[in-house]
């Protein structure tokens, strides 16, 4: 049967596939739109199977906050090339998946893949896009923060994003942005020293001892020196103890207290592709 340009255009809008792919799909299915969509999806699955072992080192990471400001989510959607990762449609797809996940209150990548987006499971939407783009695409990571107030930050280029939760609402929004940008720039390992994972503390102590020993310090002094270096690590690598990048005369803890009495950070997530 003759395939009309309007039908090809309609299928393209439905799937995002190229004009020639849409025309072929409609031709192969005698103009049946549902069958044509399935045809394109199967093509995507075939491409996905071929590229399953490919490395996805590029992509986009985006952050988003709920309307009430009490929940934030951050997601990484990965692809194979920088060209695709920077494409507006790829970033838009990342946002669509993230917004759906945030509204659906899911907490894992597996749960996201089963959600329905534009009439399809997210995993099928991704499979379709693999067929359209010709690259492996996958949700690499996803996380959420719940708090009295959550602030998000996306660094230009969509390679780095942050969500940070505070114990209070109603404070100056610029304060939240400053802290989110601090996290982006300084990459703290945790909120404070009490929340640093035990394995990291043990690793820093071990490194501190080894360095002191290499420097020829007395055996009896190694533990004390390692503890001192651990304190320096806490100062440099935990958010509340870090010097505020905009005013290094005060820590983030002091900056927050000066902004609003009792204000502090309770959690944050920082996603980076590099």
Would you kindly provide a written description of the structure presented here, covering whatever features stand out?
- This protein has 274 residues and is an alpha+beta fold.
- Among the domains are: 5-50, Helicase, Ruva Protein, domain 3, CATH 1.10.8.10; 55-146, 2-Layer Sandwich (Tetrahydropterin Synthase, Chain A), CATH 3.30.479.
- 48% of the residues lie in helices and 21% in strands.
- The chain has helices at 5-15, 19-28, 33-50, 82-85, 88-104, 109-113, 122-133, 173-186, 198-214, 222-237, 252-259, and strands at residues 58-65, 71-79, 116-117, 120-121, 138-146, 149-154, 160-166, 243-244, 247-251, 265-272.
- A 3-stranded antiparallel β-sheet has the order 1-2-5.
- The termini are far apart.
- 35% of the residues are buried.
Q: Strand order, biggest sheet?
A: 1-2-5
Secondary-structure class: alpha+beta
How widely separated are the two ends?
Answer: 50 Å
Share in helix? 40-55%
Quote the average pLDDT. Answer: 91
Our estimate of the beta-strand percent is 15-25%
What is the CATH C level class of the domain at 55-146, in words?
Answer: Alpha Beta
The major beta sheet can be summarized as: 3 strands, antiparallel
| Low-confidence spans | none
Number of strands: 10
Instruction: Tell me the overall shape.
Output: elongated
Number of discrete helical segments: 11
